[in-house]
Amino acid sequence: MKGFRPLWRPLNTLCSRIAREPGHRRCGQCGAAAESALQPSFGLLFDIDGVLVRGKTPLPAAKKAFQKLVDTRGQFLVPVVFVTNAGNCLRQTKADQLSEILGVKISQNQVVMSHSPLRMFRKYHKKSVLVSGQGPVLDIAKNLGFTKVITIDMLREAFPLLDMVDHNRRPKILPPSPVNPPKVEVVVLFGEPIRWETNLQLIVDTLLTNGNLGSALCNPTYPHIPLLACNMDLMWMAEAQSPRFGHGTFMVCLENIYKKITGKELRYEALMGKPSELTYHYAEYLIRAQSAERKWRKPIRTLYAIGDNVMTDVYGANLYNRYLDEKSSKKSAKALAKVAAVTGSSATAVSQEEELDNMWENELSPPSAVACKSVLVCTGVYNPHTEIPTDGNECITETVFHGHRDFGFEPALVEPDHIVEDVDAAVQLIFKQENYAPQ
């Protein structure tokens, strides 16, 4: 109707004017409305390397972005989680590093490391686990819930004759065989190790002997003992001008060595870190936890994943978006099959599908988000001048497809929803998309 003015507009204006009068006690109606308007219905998932930092050097746009995300007391205005494929430290350590870099207090509950979803794999927590990586791997494993942990260094000390590549490390005197050789039941790859030849040799030995390194190699059992891997990044961006080898490169070596020796494919019980849906599901759980802690009433409906790598950040966000879409469309059977495929488990057995679904749902509860949107920045791995093939059937060289072997290449999944210059531009774009204007 021409000339019609909605009643809420003059009411808000009147309340605003009255609120400025001396001695006024704020109207409960307008106060609640204002508070509700400032409550976000979206959450932010930030990658770290190439988005906020390059190596240990913070990017200029990072502090600008986070000045927009906190109030005068340093509290976050929207739920924020940092999702990194790094796996060489504890969550608290990473939170402390981010706090110093960004000038904002970050809690460990806002950090998802590549190994964080291992907390959900309770069935392995009491088994004897061999861990590979660098940093405080023993502390990391125990912090995740594992109780019987063996490191590569511990294994090497028990069996020094197995590590023979470096001639200078070969023992001068033959040591006695260990009385009680450690039996390995599970292998967990946290991230790229320092001595690749040592780690490759001992991990392959473990797989070929079914975890009994004290016995001679006979006919290896297949499938081998469970293998879980975190961080599939082939490359990552540090201070160098070009990307550096990541844990994904180490995994390529391990997979090809195992296949060359046995003629069979190396199998993963689960793959974690981006682009695995397990990682995004865990991150979404932490987003919801923040919202609940702040007593925000609005459910978190949209996630924005900001990253610099199309094969991990964008692919993973789009993959999780598809999962959310299928969940909301009640296509649970199809969604479960895709989840099983992503995590490297069999999609054929119904019991395995149900087990994986129960693990997610029971540990974390169902997601509230209905969409996960990808925002690509140009400050890291992504090169805006590199073209991605539009036909998935084309021959894709390794220089283009940097995703893991077990993730089929789908061109649609590497297409970001938005491309921006840097993380500050990403935050501005998201606020505009959500019509969110914090005071």
From TrEMBL:
Entry keyword set: Hydrolase
A GO molecular-function descriptor: hydrolase activity
Gene3D superfamilies xref list: HAD superfamily/HAD-like (3.40.50.1000)
Protein name: HDHD5 hydrolase
Range of residues in the leader sequence: none
Species for this entry: Polypterus senegalus (Senegal bichir)
Domain of life: Eukaryota
Gene name of the record: Hdhd5
Iron is among the record's keywords: no
